[in-house]
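Journal club prep, shared notes

We agreed each person brings one worked example of a sequence with its structure written out as tokens. Mine is DNA-directed RNA polymerase subunit M. I'm keeping it raw so we can talk through how to read the token line rather than staring at a rendered picture. Sequence first:
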Amino acid sequence: MKFCPKCGGVMIPTKKDGKEILRCTKCGYEMELTAKDKKEYSVKEQKDKNSRVLTTSLVSDKGERKLEEEQLEQEREEYYKEVGLELLREELSEETESDEE
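Then the structure, token by token:
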């Protein structure tokens, strides 16, 4: 691996005008790629396509998501109605108890 003589950044092989060169990743300094350098930058190990890392992601239909949001909103409204009615019943029962005394 080569490092840039100007800034110390890593030099990576690239092609420019049909020639292979080494270009600094930080400052953009360029130098010719020699046969010796080319050997240093060759891939020594290839990954097997079957050894890929499997990942998961949440993929859902927007229609389903919209339905879930509507259902959540409806359940939230029902909950608040129940809580409100319960509080109202408590207030009414307290008023009737105080009126009886």
